[in-house]
Specification:
The structure is a homodimer. Chain A contains 8 helices and 8 strands. By secondary structure, chain A is α/β, with parallel strands linked by helices. Chain A folds into 2 domains: about 160 residues, NAD(P)-binding Rossmann-like Domain (Rossmann fold, 3-Layer(aba) Sandwich); about 110 residues, N-(1-d-carboxylethyl)-l-norvaline Dehydrogenase, domain 2. Chains A, B: It comes from Rufibacter quisquiliarum.
């Protein structure tokens, strides 16, 4: 299977590295900036770098993976010319497959790796879930095979589920990352090392995936410890942003705890 | 050093296990319920179990660690009789050392292990930071030595800093745990396996402690992706609780991003 990569950012970079390592043939890499595409093809003698979206003239591929920011997908589609019967898939968690439906004469799909990519940090593709969707069974099989070359966890997923997965990932990763930022800032202001929190964070994470997090929730909000809650809000008086965040999360924890208590009553638990 | 443990809950259980494993001598374990104390001393032929807080009559210890819920500390202090010149320390992140100042004729301290303990789950004491504070240098050294028998990370910490550490831990652990609960519920409702998110959560955590989390923040809130934000709020329409949480966290991420942009301008960054 010959693969074309559209984009030269974080996702594209790790896709090229991962695919080449898995023995797949990357034949062309596109970037608006030729130099960026060339950086990715440097180590690949048989791959072409291009800043043209006319893929009829460049080394043709069977599968094109669009790995550009969501808002850059439509501009790419407007200019791109793909070989007939190619399979074109985007790598976005948010965009529906139908975002590609302006393309004619090709199959379309989604090839969404559920991971956060940074250029400087190697990733372990084997452990990255890849969510696949396609316009026909043959295209789906192509994407599943491509996924399995990279990862041990490749799943078929319709657009509606992928949307739910994406919003869940925002809660589980984007929002938690922000909270870690808040925590680290509080520690830094108190001249305490941020590493102090690392073992506790790791243990909390292990528990959260071993049990239902709602069942192992601890802390002042969960136990209704009003003295500590008020003391914490006073400590945060200098940062109203963090006070509001503290209140919003405390309220949500207590809502969940209340619902669990009600559910317990409803089935006759003590 | 002979050690008395007051309490038989999660913290007390892991303290006893950890101290015995480290070769320390636990001479007495108190619980309101004798049977609970006996459970902890079962494997310790030289330790007494007691439901009396009169520690003059039980096997005397040099250091007493109070490992009961915060609100149970005062009731314990009102009844307890300690040998003269004993060192009495609580294990709370929230209570000041001065909470023990009603005691006379003893030294007082704090011995706060920064970890979440569950009875059924073994802990690796070597990696648990222990925060120590005491009423005099000799008592401080006793607690530091006791801490070092358990852990590689023992730090002196005044009450004001411990409070900041505790509020930071609430953000970094209690709040993130709740968000993982929300994420898992969203996945379960969509009939998706919760393990899908685990690699992404782990990678986010590694990044957060390798870099400043605010610098590596990603997601729709960070990039001001209004289309995705609105789509997510519509997806959460059935759960106003999660909608509000989504809005509060999005607002906070954008406030931080705005502050960073302003700070950049102030120092003349582009």
């Amino acid at each position: 299977m010959k693969i074309g990569i559209i984009g030269a950012g974080n996702v594209a970079t790790h896709l090229v590295k991962g695919l080449v390592k898995a023995g797949e043939e990357v034949t062309v890499v596109y970037s608006r900036t030729l130099g960026s595409a060339q950086e990715l093809t440097q180590a690949l003698p048989s791959a072409a770098a291009t800043d043209s979206l006319d893929f009829l003239s460049a080394a043709p591929a069977d599968v094109y993976l669009i790995a550009v920011p969501d808002q850059a997908v439509q501009p790419v589609l407007q200019q791109a010319v793909f070989p007939p019967e190619a399979l074109v898939a985007h790598t976005s968690g948010t965009l529906p497959r139908e975002a590609l439906s302006t393309l004619t004469g090709v199959e379309t799909g989604v090839f969404y790796p559920l991971q956060t990519f940074s250029k400087e940090k190697e990733v372990d593709w084997a452990r990255i879930p890849i969510c696949v969707e396609a316009s026909c069974d043959a295209a789906e099989n192509q994407l599943l095979n491509l996924g399995r070359a990279l990862s041990q966890q490749v799943v078929k997923m319709a657009g509606a589920e992928r949307k739910q997965l994406h919003v869940a990932a925002v809660f589980a990763c984007n929002f938690t990352n922000h909270l870690w930022g808040v925590a680290q800032e509080i520690l830094q202001k108190a001249a305490l090392p941020v590493t102090l929190l690392q073992p506790l964070v790791q243990e909390t994470m292990h528990k959260a995936f071993q049990f239902n997090p709602f069942e192992v929730q601890t802390g002042p909000a969960q136990r209704g410890d009003q003295d500590t809650l008020e003391a914490h809000l006073r400590l945060l008086a200098q940062t109203p942003q963090y006070q509001q965040l503290y209140q919003a999360l405390t309220a949500s924890i207590q809502t969940t705890a209340g619902q669990k208590a009600d559910a317990g009553k409803a089935v006759g638990n003590p």
